[in-house]
Design a protein that fits this description.
Number of strands: 5
Strand order of the largest sheet: 3-2-1-4-5
Structural class: mainly alpha
Shape: globular
CATH topology of the largest domain: Rossmann fold
């Protein structure tokens, strides 16, 4: 008698982030945490198949870890990047331990596609376009910016204009190393101007870590495109535009890319903790089938929903 086919479940960075946590205080998220850890245990016992895309996941590593101040320069050696970051005195060791746990979990997943596939709309534009139509609330082309977005841009612009205060010619010509200390020194000097505390702890920690991550990228691109400091205003805007487009992608855009990937590769379930995303996909599934001209068996489920189904299967 043939073995029953295991349900294939797509796992993204946010799910690994949840599994890797040692505990959860939020009651609603606690239920999802318990469920996803049970699903992981089922995977270890080969009762379910947990899969991911190398390219999609590695882009998530770059974006998500950048929000913690870490500049992932080589996705083949993420742990080496973490080690380098950790040697900086300002690094948060709780963050680095958590990132290592996420990488360890990622290494245990099954891979449905590797580096031969491109990511997102460049790989499957038709799927991405149609999924975006049913999942995104704003119309295509809406570029409305929040006050926080403009505030962060202004801070980064001031940092870029002040880089010549800390970088000499030798350090600016060094394309190999990330100067976390120098970049933080610049950011630290600019933050008070915008009524933010110049610290990597406390209520401004998440904001400042994210700004440091973006500034690291700005410096890297600036070094390659501007051989001498200071950078001119027009060049600063040019570099900022690149940084924003590459490293400030919205979570919904990343979800659209992953769901399109699942549709293209025949995955059974896309796992998410975003209940609104799951409801919207389910509610618009028929419209998506009509737009794609094919039946869709993919389901977008929360861990609690998937675990309940696996219990009764």
């Amino acid at each position: 008698m043939a073995d029953k086919r295991r349900t294939s479940v797509y796992v993204d960075y946010h799910i690994l982030d949840l599994i890797a946590r040692t505990g959860v205080k939020d009651e609603a998220l606690l239920r999802e945490w318990n469920a996803v850890r049970s699903i992981w245990d089922r995977y270890r016992h080969e009762a379910v198949s947990l899969v991911t895309s190398v390219d999609e996941m590695e882009l998530d590593f770059v974006i998500q870890m950048n929000r913690g101040g870490l500049c992932v320069t080589d996705t083949f050696q993420i742990t080496d990047n973490i080690d380098t970051f950790e040697r900086w005195e300002g690094a948060d060791h709780e963050d680095t331990d958590h990132w290592r746990a996420i990488v360890d979990l990622y290494d245990q997943l099954e891979v449905i596609s590797g580096h031969d596939d491109l990511v997102g709309e460049h790989s499957h534009p038709h799927y991405c376009e149609q999924v975006a139509r049913v999942l995104k609330e704003e119309p295509p082309g809406d570029t409305g910016r929040s006050a926080a977005f403009d505030d962060e841009t202004a801070i980064l612009r001031d940092c870029a204009a002040a880089l010549h205060d800390v970088y000499d010619l030798r350090l600016w010509a060094d394309l190999k190393h990330i100067q976390y200390g120098l970049n933080w020194k610049v950011l630290e000097s600019v933050l008070p101007k915008y009524s933010h505390s110049a610290t990597l702890n406390g209520e401004d920690a998440a904001l400042n870590k994210n700004l440091l991550g973006l500034l690291n990228r700005l410096v890297n691109i600036g070094k390659k495109s501007c051989p001498r400091l200071p950078m001119q205003d027009r060049h600063i805007d040019f570099v900022l535009d690149i940084v924003r487009k590459k490293y400030c992608q919205e979570d919904i855009d990343r979800s659209i890319s992953r769901i399109a990937h699942c549709l293209r590769t025949g995955i059974d379930c896309y796992l998410t903790t975003d209940g609104g995303l799951a409801e919207k996909f389910t509610g618009n599934k028929q419209n998506l089938q009509l737009a794609l001209g094919t039946s869709i068996h993919l389901e977008v489920l929360r861990p609690t929903e998937l675990e309940e189904r696996l219990k009764t299967a």
